Each structure stands twice: as structure tokens, then as C-alpha cells.
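so my prof wants the structure for this chain in the C-alpha cells format not the other one, which i didnt know existed until like an hour ago. anyway here's the sequence
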Amino acid sequence: MKMRYAVLTATLSAVLACHPASAQSPAALVSPTLEAAKARGHVLCGVNEGLTGFAARDATGEWQGFEADICRAVAAATLGKGEAVRYVPLDTNSRFSALQAGKVDILARNTTWTMERQVKFGFEFVGISFFDGQGFMIRADRGVVSALQLAGTRICVVAGTTSEANLNIYLQQQGVPFTALPLASHQQNIEAYRAGKCDVYSADYSTLFSLRTSLEQPTDHAILPELISKEPIGIAVREDDRAWGEIVRWTLNGLINAEEFGLTRAIALSGAAAGDAARLMEGSDVSGVRLGLKRGWLGAAVAAVGNYAELFDRTIGDAGPLGMKRGLNALWRNGGILYAPPMW
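here's what i got, hopefully its the right format
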């Protein structure tokens, strides 16, 4: 036994001599996408063609909204300024091919993260930016307060999507007879709804809240309480650039952590972070440098768009055009399910 112990000790000593504890950390990751963005001077961001609150041009032609600002945060983190981003409007059919072909660096276009999409299209969802779900909108004067009261109605839905499948499955399971009116796009659906060609419009909550603002009297239309699907809205990148995926992932996580630990836009702009906010910035710098980012990258992102709470409130929350409540998108300690891994 002593002989075997001596041999084992000698073997371990030899291994440790070849791999000392003081060995240097792995080399910094290099992102071809980041290098290309630096060379052209901006990040390419794929967004919706026009979805109020999420990504749409304002009266001056500037892109505004929740997802547009996530791209600004990435631009600030990587290139030092939030305005270093160019937006590429994409329709439902072209969004995946545009990312695959390298026409955009980031896809932030109200896209549901599914296993099929991640496996089939060769890209990676780096995080959930918004917890969404499919619902129903109907004229308030009909007095309907539940989807279970939709018997005999005509329901508009985008054709060939998971929304059409969800609608059929849910109402059939509930024993609610209805007539589906599938149309090619959200715009065609909202126009049909406005014209009275259908009684109900079924889509993701985010879409319903957004398109309701285009109606003459938005408050005359009620969004019913039922959510009939899980729609985790994700930010996607190509899977062939690990470092870029980590940069976008931790920028999103950084905005969420910034809310949790009190790093606000005002504090980031002043550079006067203290306590947990300072710990967050210092901790993010340690790993950020390995990703090719400059120290202070997270502070730059928060200075550009605010933390998650500030971003949500300004674009789609109470201070924005949609007036959405946080709901599932509240922090985990505030009754929601929003959660980001620690960064120190």
C-alpha cells in the first residue's frame, strides 16, 4: 500500500509540475463579429419593420423601442457609444436568413426562442429579453372578459405561424367553437380587425398592445387576461462566434443585474457607483476584458439606455406608449421571473 501511495504521489507531482496552479489564464477570446463592427463603425441590428414600443421609427426617422435600445446597449458596450448601431428592418420570413447570411450581427425582432429554431437555423439565442404569451383582443363594448366567451366569433391570426396552431389547439380543447381568419401579416390582421371583418385578433401580448395604439380609440379595445402560450422573446446571434454571443448575452444580463443592484442610468453617467452597483461594474470588467471589451463597458451600456427597469418603463411600460405592466417581467424578488446570473 505504501509503495502504491508513493507512486501515486510521484505521478501527481509530475502532473502538477506540468500544469502549475500559477499558470496564466486562457487567452482572451477574439470575436470576428466585434472586429467587423469596429471596422465599419457600427453594429448591425435586425429589428421589426415597425412595432410600436419595441422597434419603430419616430417622427424624426430615429428608431425607438425596447429591442432597438437593447441593440444600443450592445453598441455602447462594444463600441463606446449607443448611437453606433444601424437598424435593418426585417419581416417575419427574412429575419432568420438575414442573420444566417451575416446581414445583421444581432436579431432583436420579437422572436420566440424555441428548440427548433436554435437547432435548425444555426444560431444561438443568448437570453430572454421579454416573457411574452399569446392572447386575444376584442372590442370592449362586447362585454367579453374571458377567452371562454368567444364562442361563435371570427378570429384573425397570422397564417402559418405557431399563433395559428396555438389558437386552434386552445379553443378546441376548451370546447369553444370559432371561425379562424388567417391572414399573411400582422398589418393585414389589424386592418381586418379595424374593418370589422373579424371580431377578435389573436397574437402575442406585445403585438396586441403595440397594434392597439394604431386604432382610433385604443381604450375601446380590451385585451383579455388569458395567456395561451409561452413566448420567451429572445435575442439571437450566429453560433459560429462564441465571443460575440457572450458579449451580447452578458450585455443583456448586465442590464437585468443593473436593476437588481441599483445601477441606474444617472449613476452610470456620473461614474459615482458605490456598494453593490460598484461591485457589479468591477466584476463585469474582469470577464469583459477577456471578451475584448474595455473596462467600464457595462457602465457605458447602462448610461446609454438605463437598466432593465428604466428601459422597460420608458419604452413599453407606464411611461411608454403601451402602458404594459411588468408582470412576468418583474425581477424574481418582485413577483416576476426575470433573473440573470451573477457577474462577480
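also thought this was worth mentioning. The radius of gyration is 24 Å.
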